[in-house]
Design goal:
- The protein is an all-alpha fold.
- It has two domains: 6-53; 77-305, MetI-like fold (Orthogonal Bundle), CATH 1.10.3720.
- The chain contains 14 helices and two strands.
- It has helices at 6-53, 70-76, 79-111, 117-121, 126-129, 132-143, 149-156, 169-197, 201-209, 214-225, 227-241, 246-251, 263-273, 277-305; strands at residues 56-57, 65-66.
- It has a two-stranded antiparallel ribbon with strand order 1-2.
- Helix 2 (70-76) packs across helix 14 and helix 8 packs antiparallel against helix 11 (227-241).
- The longest helix is centred in the N-terminal third of the chain and has 48 residues, at 6-53.
- It is flat.
Length: 306
C-alpha cells in the first residue's frame, strides 16, 4: 500500500487552492464580461476612433486623409474656439456659484423642518427631471423679444421699449447662467440635504451650549462636515457646464455676436454644420485634458483647505 508523504499532500492542497482561486477569478470576470463588453464597444472604441479622426482631414462623404498635427495647429489660430472656452468658463463659474449657493440655502431650510416645506419638497427637483429642450422652450417663451411673456407684461405696465433680452450679449449670457444655476440647484439640493442630515446632532447641541448662533453653527459645523460633498458637486457642475448645448441651441444659437458660443456648440458646428469632422474631433479631444486639469485643481485646492 502506497502512503502519501506530507510534502506531496501539501502540493495537492496547494493545487486545489489555486484551482479554486482560478475558478473564482474566472467566474468574477464572466459576471462583469457583459458590462466590460458594452464599455469597450461604446466607450473605448469610439475614443480610439476619435483620436484617429483628430489627425485626419475628414469631411463626409469623402474618406479620411491623414494630416498629422494640422488640426491642432489650426486650433491655435481659431479665435472663435478661444472665445468659446472663455464663454464656457464664464457660464461655468456663474452657474456653479449661484447654483451651489442656492442648493445649499434650500437644503439648510429643508433640514430645519419648517412648516410648509414638505409641500415645497415635491417641486424643487422638477427642473432636474425636465428635459433641457423643454426648459429652453419655457425660457424662450418668457424672454423672447417679440412674443415673450416678460416683455408683454412690461408693455402692460407702461414700458414702451422693453429690452431684447436674448439679442444683447450681457443679458443673453446672464439668462443662460440663470438657467444653469436653476437646474444645478435642483440637482444638488437633495445631495446637500442628505449630507446635512448625516451630521451628528450632538455637534449642534454642544455648539448651542457654548453660545453659538445659527450662522456660527453653519460656518463651523455644517459647512466643514459636508465639504467633501461640496467639492464633488463643484466637480460635477464644471463637467456638466462644459456639456451644455441644447439650451444654447434653442435660446441664442451661440449669438449675439458669439457671446454665448460655448465649446460644445462650436465643436458641433465644425463637425456637423460645416462638415469638418476631423477638426471637430481634434477640438473635442482637447477638452479631456482641460477638464481633467480643472478637476485636479479643484480637488487639490479642497484638500489644501482641509
Amino acid at each position: 500500500m502506497k502512503v502519501e508523504t506530507v510534502p506531496s499532500m501539501n502540493v495537492k492542497r496547494k493545487k486545489k487552492r489555486e484551482l479554486h482561486r482560478f475558478k473564482d477569478i474566472a467566474g468574477s470576470y464572466l459576471f462583469i464580461f457583459p458590462a466590460l463588453s458594452l464599455l469597450f464597444v461604446f466607450s473605448i472604441v469610439p475614443i480610439i476612433y476619435l483620436i484617429w479622426l483628430s489627425f485626419t482631414d475628414y469631411s463626409l462623404p469623402n474618406p479620411a486623409v491623414f494630416v498629422g498635427l494640422e488640426n491642432f495647429s489650426r486650433m491655435l489660430e481659431d479665435k472663435l474656439f478661444m472665445k468659446s472656452i472663455w464663454n464656457t468658463l464664464v457660464y461655468t463659474f456663474g452657474s456653479m456659484v449661484l447654483g451651489l449657493a442656492a442648493a445649499l440655502g434650500i437644503a439648510v431650510l429643508l433640514n430645519r423642518k419648517l412648516k410648509g416645506l414638505r409641500f415645497f419638497k415635491v417641486f424643487y427637483f422638477l427642473p432636474t427631471i425636465t428635459s433641457e429642450v423643454i426648459t429652453a422652450m419655457i425660457f424662450l417663451w418668457v424672454f423672447d423679444n417679440n412674443l415673450g411673456i416678460l416683455n408683454y407684461l412690461l408693455k402692460v405696465f407702461g414700458m414702451e421699449s422693453p429690452p431684447a433680452w436674448l439679442l444683447q450679449p450681457t443679458t443673453a449670457m446672464l439668462i443662460l447662467i440663470f438657467i444653469g444655476a436653476w437646474r444645478g440647484a435642483a440637482y444638488n439640493t437633495p445631495i446637500f440635504l442628505a449630507a446635512l442630515q448625516s451630521v451628528p446632532q450632538s455637534y449642534y447641541e454642544a455648539a448651542r451650549l457654548d453660545g453659538a448662533n445659527a450662522w456660527k453653527q453653519f460656518l463651523h459645523i455644517s459647512l466643514p462636515s459636508i465639504m467633501h460633498i461640496l467639492v464633488y458637486s463643484m466637480v460635477m457642475s464644471v463637467i456638466g457646464s462644459f456639456q451644455v448645448v441644447a439650451v444654447v441651441d434653442i435660446l441664442t444659437n451661440g449669438g449675439p455676436m458669439d457671446s454665448t458660443m460655448v465649446v460644445i456648440k462650436h465643436v458641433w458646428q465644425q463637425s456637423f454644420e460645416f462638415n469638418y469632422v476631423g477638426y471637430g474631433a481634434a477640438l473635442s479631444l482637447v477638452l479631456f485634458p482641460f477638464l481633467l486639469f480643472i478637476t485636479w485643481l479643484q480637488l487639490k485646492l479642497s484638500s489644501g483647505k482641509e
